[in-house]
TrEMBL record:
It comes from Luteimonas chenhongjianii. This is Electron transfer flavoprotein subunit alpha. Gene3D superfamilies: HUPs, TPP-binding domain. Belongs to the ETF alpha-subunit/FixB family. CDD domains: ETF_alpha (cd01715). Pfam families: ETF, ETF_alpha. Residues 4-186 form the Electron transfer flavoprotein alpha/beta-subunit N-terminal domain. GO terms for biological process: fatty acid beta-oxidation using acyl-CoA dehydrogenase. Binds 1 FAD per dimer. FAD binds at residues 206, 231-232, 245-249, 262-269, 283. InterPro entries: DHS-like_NAD/FAD-binding_dom (IPR029035), ETF_a/b_N (IPR014730), ETF_a/FixB (IPR001308), ETF_alpha_N (IPR033947), ETF_asu_C (IPR014731), ETF_asu_C_CS (IPR018206), Rossmann-like_a/b/a_fold (IPR014729). Keywords: Electron transport, FAD, Flavoprotein, Transport. One of its GO terms (molecular function) is flavin adenine dinucleotide binding.
Amino acid sequence: MSKVLVIAEHLDGKLNASATAKTVAAAQALSPQSIDVAVFAADPAGAATEAATIAGVSKVRAVANPANAQALAQVLGPQIAKLAAGYSHVFAPSTTFGKDLLPVVAALLGVNQISDLMTVESSHVFKRPIYAGNAIVTVEAPADQPVVATVRTASWQEAARGGSATVETTSVDAELPTHTRFIGLAAGSTDRPDLQSAKRVVSGGRGVGSEENFKIVFDFADKIGAAVGASRAAVDAGYVPNELQVGQTGKIIAPELYIAIGISGAIQHLTGIKDAGTIVAINKDPDSAMFEIADIGLVGDLFKVLPELEAQLKD
């Protein structure tokens, strides 16, 4: 019977609830005996309490250690490898956090990692995307080894809330490295929703024309309470910083509503939004590839169309 350990992602004491709940949902697909969530922090109380409300979680294991003040893979990895004893599966979200952390855990456990798990076929058989999402491969992990996998959060719905799991203080005796230390964290600040967890996203592409012109995208996103994204072409042109990039080499997202403004629709970009609910494309080029996958398409000049849409919103 499967026993799953989910590694919670959090920052500044606040749980990344969406990513963690989607990872729990993937764990639930195994129909396991139990799902435990592990929170590693200097003070894990806040994030652990949040994690305990996710339905399907058996218990939350709170590991307090001053060394865990920052999510360093080289520091967390040895602790997770120790804690994983007795678990058949170790899951984490396929975010920057999980992609950095789980290869370390897999190496310490001496197993191969499965990346971007999107479908559970059985306890050791899964599906994951390859070739920028153009193909789906079925992989089988050895039955006599623990499964270490990152979960493609865009492919899963969040597990429900309303759970009441117990929070258990856990001590992990692991030798931590001394060659890795935290220097600093540089992160952009914004009042807009987080791009990877937002229900609505408005993205701009090369067609926006300039960094100055991108203000029209930001303004429209603010009108509808959406996060802002961008194509790689817009990022490479210097219109917006790279943390807004959506696509194969950027963020993989699955909002309920995705509005693509002035984006041609390169396959690398489409890979990042393939799981979105409703896709709206606005482009003056009627032959844009974005129209081929859009649920709603509007051919027109974005600098005329967006003000008209904003006027309708005001009404």
